[in-house]
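Subject: design request, 171 residues
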């Protein structure tokens, strides 16, 4: 029993360290004057790597980004936007197996864990040239067993974390 408690404690510490090490990445075009950007529009389609997006997932993503951009003072406008917003969503599904053998009998405690890792990339494009002016990305575990409300809350946190890097701080 003591061995199991130690293994669980090590696993918990590893999870905390991995979560703390997660880092949002972003980049931008140094020639862009972000102070002039006031309006935006979405590109026609959100791209999903699995080509099976649900309308609810797309609507949640767009709504969360719109909310965060609105809080930054930007307005959604189909007419003459200053920049375009595009989103790419990638899902990676994995099955991991761990052998928590007891004593000298390996295989007594095989445990398989199915998890889904989602990666969100937000890109902002110049409306006239379609050149990339800013991008941000983050990853998160997706708990498929959770409710849509909980998944939406997690998505909102991820989007807020990404958009904390926008506009970029210029030196």
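Subject: RE: design request

Done. Sequence follows.
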């Amino acid at each position: 029993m003591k061995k199991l408690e130690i293994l669980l404690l090590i696993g918990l510490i590893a999870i905390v360290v991995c979560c703390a090490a997660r880092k949002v990445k972003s980049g931008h075009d140094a020639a862009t004057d972000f102070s002039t950007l006031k309006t935006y529009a979405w590109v026609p389609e959100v791209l999903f790597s699995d080509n099976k997006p649900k309308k609810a997932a797309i609507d949640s993503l767009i709504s969360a980004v719109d909310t965060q951009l609105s809080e930054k003072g930007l307005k959604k406008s189909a007419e003459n936007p200053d920049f375009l917003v595009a989103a790419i969503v990638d899902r990676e599904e994995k099955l991991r197996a761990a052998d928590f053998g007891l004593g000298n009998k390996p295989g007594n405690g095989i445990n398989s864990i199915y998890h889904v890792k989602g990666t969100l990339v937000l890109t902002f494009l110049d409306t006239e040239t379609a050149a990339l002016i800013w991008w941000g990305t983050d990853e998160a575990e997706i708990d498929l067993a959770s409710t849509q409300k909980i998944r939406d809350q997690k998505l909102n946190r991820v989007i807020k974390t990404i958009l904390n890097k926008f506009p970029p701080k210029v030196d």
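Confidence is low (pLDDT under 50) at residues 1-21.
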